[in-house]
Amino acid sequence: MDTPQISAPTRAPSSGVVHINTRHTNRFTVVGNHLTQHSELSLTAIGLAAHIQSLPDGVRIGIRFLADRFPESEARIAAALRELEAHGYLKRTRERLPSGRVVTRTVCYNQPITDAGPAAVPEPRPRPVRPTPEPPAPAPAPETVPAPETVPAPETVPAPETVPAPETAAAPPPQPDMEKPSPTPVPRPPLPQPQVPDLDRHRAATDLLAGLRRHETRLLLTEDDVRRLAPAVAAWLERDAHPDAVRRTLVADLPEPLTHPAGLLAHRLTALLPPPLPTAPAREAVPRPEPLQNCDGCDRAFRAPEPGHCRECRSDLMEAA
Questions:
Q1: Nearest Cα to Cα of residue 262 among 319, 188, 173
Q2: Contact 273, 241 (CB under 8 A)
Q3: Environment class of residue 250 by beta-carbon count within 10 Å: exposed (0-12), middle (13-18) or buried (19+)?
Q4: Where are the domains of the chain?
Q5: Range in 23-27, 56-60, 129-133 with the lowest mean pLDDT
Q6: For the stretch 4-36, what's the b/e string if a residue is b when 16 or more beta carbons lie within 10 angstroms of its beta carbon?
Q7: In the CATH scheme, what is the code of domain 33-118?
Q8: Cβ atoms of residues 234 and 192 within 8 Å
Q9: Residue 130: pLDDT band by 50, 70, 90 thresholds?
Q10: Over the stretch 76-99, which tens digit does the pLDDT of each residue have?
Q11: What does residue 251 show for φ and ψ, rounded to 5 degrees?
């Protein structure tokens, strides 16, 4: 009973993570700990870098494609890409094709790079500072008249050599280049506004937006969204668009998945705004017929502006005269 059990398994740690590793034989990607345990990258940037490294060459990794693939917003994905560029895991350049179209070339590195090369390679040692050549002993004496010849020493002064060029050019210059893709988004056009404020029309627009969730549960808007979009719907109603037609336009053909319902409605209310109805042409005034009168002579009815004799009676009177 007192014989030690040599083959007994080691006891698991009392706290912390426990790894159970299985050897991969297919569909795996090797990712360095310098990335997964990076102390300055955000968790979004680390996960995005691991995802990009697992993709084959030629796959498009634009911000919109990644936003459709993952639940993060375009702003967070753009910030993560800038982080990877800043730490040398990603490089994006804009090139113009022969057709004139401008495309973005993206290069992913499994080892972070800098202008001096991969970060895994040890940095070159700084060149030893060469001692400044002291002027010769006879220099101060008047015998060494060609003092100006010794002045060109600044041309060979090792001061520029003491400042390592890679260190000064590695960090600052990439930052402006990395931030070039950020201002590319085109500003959205403003929401349409009604020409004449109308309280009843605005109330109808608010009710229409708040009731969209009855027709489509994904169009659940906040009070701020309803307040912001109500003037745009009022502009549609001002142009004689029927509320049912506006509702069908906003609800039809929704994308899947729908992550930003308020943004989609703002785009449709702006891009699909109908034109005002043309003014109806004024109808020409139809001449009214003259009223009926009774002839004073034969008592027959005839049309005339004033009472008197009909045409036959007038002719008889003229002949008698």
A1: 188
A2: no
A3: buried
A4: 33-118, 199-271
A5: 129-133
A6: eeeeeeeeeeeeeeeeeeeeeeeeeeeeeeebe
A7: 1.10.10.10
A8: no
A9: low
A10: 999 999 999 899 998 888 888 888
A11: -95, -25
**CA–CA gap between residue 82 and residue 102 (Å, rounded):** 20
| Range 121-137 average pLDDT | 53
The radius of gyration of the chain's CA atoms, rounded to the nearest angstrom, is 43
Beta strands in the chain (DSSP E): 90-96, 102-108, 113-114, 117-118, 292-294, 301-303
Residue located via tokens 């409605």: 265
What pLDDT score was predicted for residue 265? 92
Residue 192 CB coordination number (10 Å): 17
pLDDT at 185: 63
Q: Report the alpha-carbon distance of residue 234 to residue 227 in Å, rounded.
A: 11
Amino acid at position 161, single letter: E
Tokens 């729908």 found at: 258
Find tokens 């990794």 and name the residue: 61
Mean pLDDT (whole number) for 11-16: 72
The percent of residues in the chain predicted with pLDDT above 70, rounded, is 71
Q: Are 46 and 90 in contact (CB under 8 A)?
A: no
- Does the pLDDT at position 101 exceed 50? yes
Length of the chain: 321
pTM recorded for the entire structure: 0.34
Contact 37, 43 (CB under 8 A): no
